[in-house]
## 1
Amino acid sequence: MKTYILFFFLSIMCMITSCQSSPGSIRYPETARVDSLRHYFGEAIADPYAWLENDTAAATAAWVQSQNEVTFRYLAQIPFREGLRKRLTELMDYPKYSSPFKKHGVYYFFKNNGLQNQSVLYRQASLDAEAEVLLDPNKLSDDGTVALTGISFSNDGRYMAYSIARSGSDWNEIYVMELSTRRLLDDQLRWVKFSGMAWQGEGFYYSAYQAPEAGKEYSNKNEYHKIFFHCLGEEQSADRLVYENRQAPLRTCRASVTDDEKFLFIYETESTSGNSFFMQDLTKAQNPLLRLVEGFENDYSVVGHYQGKLYLLTNYKAPRQRLMEIDPARPQRENWKEVIPESKDVLESVTIVGGRLAALYMKDASHHAYIYDLAGKVEYEIKLPGLGSVATLSGEKDDNEAFYAFSSYTFPPGIYRFDVAQNRSEIFHKAEVSFEPEAYVSRQVFVTSKDGTRIPMSITYKKGLQQNAKNPAMLYGYGGFNISLTPAFRVSIIPFLESGGVYAVANLRGGGEYGEEWHRAGTKLQKQNVFDDFMAAAEYLINEGYTTSERLAINGGSNGGLLVGACMTQRPELFAVAVPEVGVLDMLRYHLFTIGWAWAADYGTSDESIEMYRYLKAYSPLHNVKEGVAYPATLVTTADHDDRVVPAHSFKFTAALQAVNRGGKPSLIRIDSKAGHGAGRPIGKIIDAQTDVWSFVMYNLGMKPKY
């Protein structure tokens, strides 16, 4: 880009006009349009806002500031905004616990007293002993923007490695603590990303990239992921390179080690699902790394090593997954033995606990849990409080005691202590939320999509609600990357429900609710299925009298932001409000930034074929914003440290909307600072963001909550 354009941008950015007094009357900042063409298979596509991809440029910073000024001026005039903030703060202010887990006879758990920015890691010698703070992430920064992203205990019980992220970035740093003294060692590892910490002896395996170009840490493409082994006390520069693939720079790799340190496993992937699979016997010197599986058609994940056998969860020849047994002496795939076969429901996870196999299944987007013996015979079903979500059941392989967390849309999270031998659950911690669950109902319905596919949808609302087509409603979805949306308690939706709102969550194709076939039915040249499913869910809410188009909002984040962007540009008349959060909105260029290339298995890329290019262009939200269309009231959200879905997606989409918006409804963008894709946000920023999103939604749905 020519240097003189920078000065042109800066001059344009200074020509900002102020917002008028009413929230409904907005004067947007001027956004420069620059002649820029992208060529795809002989076709030239204009990209006038390409300059906004330069996230460190002064012109981009000026644009961000001017947009935020307009947005926050608009939000500040919503009469119930501060009352809503107060109510959300009250709702968030309750003690939050994770399930306890045991390591070397010591219990560990996370707790947030209520409004702490980050949850604190505690430990206690027994469940009756006084708990002590082991690591408080709130002390790692003044504003709570440093988050704890992972922990891993050495197998001798002496050390804990932990990773942190700053300002929501995917970049991690690893540190090591001596557990007996809580003394921090000198070890510090940087430029770690998409990594675990797998211990072996006096060190651990981790994954990292080379240091990025200065100034491009949050936007440049991530290439040549590597696995290293770090010995305690050594400099990172001395770490041993364990695995890399120089022939395939656009892949990621990670390592795991069995807790008896006998076997190393390496997983390599070129996308977000499907992996090749390597194994090394660590008990014998100079043993080679064996490739057990080539290609990326299926998923393979080691559950554990127990009584001389390895247990592996996979969707190989089983789209809804099954559990396999591997004899380490004959580990090739043709020798694997099936333990738990594929069933009509999705086998989501397996844990070895109390000498048994605890299997978590998903049936119609809700969880069910069963205990099997090691031969794969079911012993019993764990009785759960209802239809909802179970956080991974945790326990030791030979310990009869286990823990799990359960919640649903109307059931605040509870931690349960579980007796494996007796099949008995008892409440261990119950969330004390300022909320009356008995006043609300949540039901599941099935929606018929455009091609006849049945789509599950959960609908939650206050008891006594009339289906008279007068209710405000919010429809949420995701539909991608084999990710499932199961019923879980969400504090942020309570004010909306209290004010008479209907909250609906659609389980779309592209997710994992019915296994790999369901996932693939919403990928690449079938991605339109996801949008059709979502729009069918919206039409169901309207046809069944829950709401009308004039009172219907839609929301989704990341791939869900793409969902919202695609649907609001395809059927703008169907929705009153749209909130695409941290969305993938430029489908022709998404793969050129940070880790975007890893999403190609779901999306395809604009340079792989003319057919794929045309398909992507046909639904890419950025490329389908049209002049003269009345779009829903739109609040786009992103963050300056989002190095997963770079903020340029949201910047360019917002600029395009503002340039053509003729419908009289706002097209605004909220750009958070010192924040990323969402993980690790401090509670203060969460409350601020949810206040603004729900204020915008409720105001533009014509609601008048009494806060």
## 2
Amino acid sequence: MKSGPAATQRPNEWGIDPKRLWRRYALALGILLGLVLVSHISAIRANDVAATDAAIINDSGRQRMLSQRILFLTAQVRSGQAVERNSLLQAEAVDLLAATHDDLSSLSRHEGILHPAYFGDGTGKSLDTMLTDFVADARLAVSSNGMEARAAFDRMRSIGPHQLLTLLHAAVTRHEAQADIHAERLALIHKVSLIAAIVTLLLEGLLIFRPAHLITTRTLEALENKTGALETAQREVSRRNRQLAAMCDVAEHDALHDALTGLANRRYLQRELTRRCDEIGETDAGLALMHIDLDRFKDINDTLGHAAGDHILTHVADVLRDCLRDSDFIARAGGDEFVVLTAECDDRETLNGIAERLIAALSQPVEYDGAMCSFSASIGIEIGIECRHGPHLDADLILSNADIALYRAKEKGRNRFEFFTETMRAEVEESRALGEDLIRAIERDEFFPVYQVQVDTGARAVHGVEALARWRHPEKGEMAPWLFLPVAARLGVTDAIDDAILRHALVDVANWRAAGLSVPNLSVNVSGTRLADPTLIPRLREMAIPHGTVSFEVLESIFADKIDDATRYTLDALDEMGIAIEVDDFGTGHASLLALLSLRPDRLKIARELIDPAPQSPEHRAVLESIMQIATTLETEVVAEGIETEEHALLSEELGVHVMQGFHFCRPLPEPDAAERIADITAAAAGAKGERAA
């Protein structure tokens, strides 16, 4: 009976009231939350005010730049330099200056510290008046060439460089002072909030945590008497630890294995390859790595869905397990890529057999949901013993070399394997370096055209020129397109090169025509991807190409399939602009006759492979006659390229070809030499015409 009263009196002895302790805690928590809220709101306000002040200071400072830009552009317009463009830029700058001034002067009416900066003290012209007059004079100065406009420009020059800049500088200073005042106010609010928070924490420690500590101490004293309960809890904790260890093992397995196939993942592959490289570095044992990639796997995903793709990946994993030894390490590196590590195997004959067996097994069709999925595999192989750097193997180098070999197998037609060689890496490095040079070359405008003259049949007068791309490499000299265009296509910069060639060629042809040379047509090569580029037509319109003077040569292969909507739109727009379409290398690709009927190109350009043997080959001549019949049906002109001899020229004229091009008339020449050749051909055609007339 005594334990009850003693228990109720003990808290009073320590000055603790457990029933009311939570109220103190709630009050302190409310105060802290309130202070946090105040601090948060003040921080948001500080950011907003700082952002607003920064924007105002930026606009105020920009007025100085705008006033000088307006003065400069007005002077340019007054002096007659690029009047239309500079007038437009001057008008935009004047509108921007007027808008920013209206905003800032409106703000300064209600701010005591800013008002004098914009409206002055009455002793002289205020910034508001001076900027208003400056804007009005700027608009007047470019509106005409009369005395009134000149007087406006003189007034601008009299105040712009000195008085106006001084007042604008003073306005910026006032805005910065205003921003400092705002910052000081918000800093004071932060300081007060911080002090209040510190005081609250001190009171919380005195009135809450100390009493709570005493209560906790009493509770622990009671718990010490419950040894049995603690032992039970300890056994429970041990059981939970064992469960946690088992879960960690599962998590580690999942972290190192692919969830779909059950094979090792890339992380596990990297760790295992590093371990084996370290072990082999201490012995003479062999190691080879096979990088496997599925061919046409994307087609299966796109046509049958990802479930079918997952089924194929699981099947591939099973095939690899069946075809390889237990000691071989198999991993799914990601997507449809697999990697095999073969230990104690570094001779090519054995690896040849393994690779052939894998390719044969993976080439078998797989049934899924009633459909037969057909695919194949390409393999890149690296023999690891060749990757020694001192006593150790380089794991990263092994992976890189196998990847390069895989890429070569893909290049050579897929469904095959290739061993890595140092020549492959040299080619990759050379391609990479060439790609970096290509990017820099575009920035430095190192691409330029050379020209091959085209002549009309019969009179053999100049029909036009074809612009061919060349690269003026700073170290390798002039480079032909077949050396850099494949790399450019892989980097996606072919369009930029095409633009550079067209831009330079338009300038050269314009200069020739200004010099009295007749060059009716300019032909340039255009890639199929460029025809699908939605920015092509706007860029061409900016070039202001004269109607009917430019032809785009496109490869026959882009018309092999149905022309998509984007390409059709581009072709229609080119037709409206008067840019002709020539189908290049006709007769060597896979152009659909239906596509030609739909497109109806302006010219067909017969490939040199058909022209060259035609004088001695009745079969080639028959093919050429068929092409001429197609062109006649389509009402399309025909250009014959590869005219190397007079015999080729006479045959082309006999067949009815309209335009000829080849070394017989002109080799690809730089601009000055091309101009001379154009003049020579023009003079020869005029002389021949005179002889025929006589």
